[in-house]
What does this fold into?
Amino acid sequence: MANRATCSLTIQVFHCCFLLWLCQARDTLKPGENLGENETLVSSNGVFELGFFSSGGTSSSSHYLGIWFKNDPNKKPVWVANRESPLLSSPGILSIRYDGNMVITDRKLIPIIVNAGMLAPSSKTIATLLDSGNLLLKEGDSIVWQSFDYPSDTLLPGMKIGRFNLGTEHLRKQFLVSWQSSSVPATGSFALGLDEYNITHVKVWHGDGFSRQIGFWDGKRLKFQFESSSHDHNFSYVSNPNEVYFSFQTKENLSYSWFVLSSSGQIQEYKMMGQKILMENRSICENTTASKATDCYVRTPYMCQDGGDTFSGIKGSMPDSAIVSGSVHLGLSDCEILCKGNCSCAAFASFRDDGTGCELYYGEKKGLLQFIGEGKATIYVRGDTSKESGEHDHSRRLWWVVLISVFSLILPIILALVCYLRWRNHRLKDLSLKRFQVQVGSYVAAVDEDKGGDKYGRKKDHDLPLLSFDCIATATNNFSDENKLGEGGFGPVYKGTLLGNEIAVKRLSRQSGQGLEEFKNEVQLISKLQHRSLVRLLGCCIQREEKILIYEYMANISLDSFLFDPTRKILLDWKHRFSIIEGIAQGLLYLHKYSRFRIIHRDLKTSNILLDAHMNPKISDFGMARIFGDEEARAKTRRVVGTYGYMSPEYAVHGHFSIKSDVFSFGVIMLEILSGRKVVTFCHSDRFLNLLGYAWELWKGGKGLELMDPTLSNSCLSSQFMQCIQVGLLCVQERPEDRPSISDVISMLSNERTNLPAPKESAFCIRTSYSASPMQQTSSVNDVTVSGIVAR
It folds into this structure.
């Protein structure tokens, strides 16, 4: 009896603890609540869990927001929110922002909108994690956004793969996309979805364009070409005028199961058996079940003579002297495909612990086997290496005996010489660095003293790398004309190469209207700013009379070099232009709101928007920028600097500037991007209207589409174009208080359903006798007030 009573009491205590755990675990995030590090949401029945995880398992790794099975001991995420935007500084915080959108923020407070694909219509939203693994953002009973519409690499029961919103401008394609490696959630090389040309076919694509059909709808059921326990699943296929997709459900009374597209391109079928998770690889090759998945994608050449098309794994590392090429953007499966397709490739390997990065070895395989270094990585060598490595064992031992004997004699001499050279180099480097630091410190102190001290109590911690003039001269081929990229108000800009990386070098001209104040601004401001839409300052030089700034190199130079060039502007289709508008807006938002200091750029124009190799915009030239205190709203200056056409009326006429001055310049840039016309040269002869007035008249008359750059006619969405015109006109209104903030601009651009306010008449609508001279069009410094432009 006593044992029974003890057992009964134990069961009751267990049930109470379990119920208490269920009560404490929350499945919903409400406005005003945060989900931080080591905090999670758990679905109502404890099936799924949402929280932050790191790709490498250490505090210095990249951090992501993901969903995983609660009972999975490995916590392998089935969905990742920010796979292309990892948090690098620290684990983030998930919250529902004031506007109802789910955002992830880190220490830098730069928000990542989780539901960017469908923004919240109001602030009255909540986020709930379901037992299906679906994360919902809801407004009342209405679903605003759900994670099932944006899959990662995992197909869960009830999740749909296909095409949606057919016949509309908002076509959405849902694919599974593999991870870059088994531990890095970034987009990998493989994708699974419905074929674009035959929507009854299910295919897997590799990043280089190769594909393999893995299934098809025969009119009655979905059939797959890989072996699977499909009798455990109810697959369905739906096709109608609005959508076409396939999905599956696990049959009743059977274990929970799901599918994963692995980083190597395999289909992995998982089953939850009690507290255990079982996995089986499903080959997607036709007529075989044993081959590796990557064999399906490579166009294998005729059998290579030296080792065929099989590879053997050897522990070690590639020798430093090897003939190796590779890329950090490729995974191990990409490496195998590239090496198999080229008989000159003798081996391949991944040079990162997380399975990313690709090294390909071209050369003698015997030489590679002799000099493979020590290491924990696996090198995959073509052919069976067991016999060949045995043949080299004897000669390798002889080599070691000779090398050890020689090194035992000369090693003391080498060590002594190395120690002396290191001491000498460090001493020279320290003396040089101290001399440059004294120069910079004296210069900054002099300028600060001249300006009455540091107004906002900032530390004078100029930790920007200081380079010697000789080093920069060498990098730019002694500032040769062949390396010259252009010239602005600061001075000429040159292309250079430093430590194997391309750089842009801006050298202060002695004839420049800019000088110490602008140089100081660049060093003080942009060296402290970190944002993908701001150009990076890499270093500076202050030596003799030289003042030089070193930036990251932008392959496509500036926006105006494309936008106003009749032959190059066709490369800027609507997708690129809208992306550039959004990128500039995000950069301004960081400057105005999220950077270390509130910063007003004051010289925003198309020539100061640089484009990288992928046409991503980056704001540059902070020589005219001003820092605002937390309580400051606007300031006044007697020295009006900037570029005519882009300056707001209150700044050009009265010297007043604020964040709304930058918004005005942004609006001008928007209208230039939409029309492909320069604000300082365009004039409508019939009405004496400049670009702002012309855009206003067209919009007011319902003819806004006539403003469109003719090169956009085949790529532009008319509704989105009209929305952009209205946003641009709101930004260039005469009164600063009528203009939206840059955060409002971003909200307007990202939500087509928003009813925008009607803009008032633009500033500087009528163009009178003023005609910009070539100097005024290119210079960034104009120490005069505006008298030839009439504000209305």
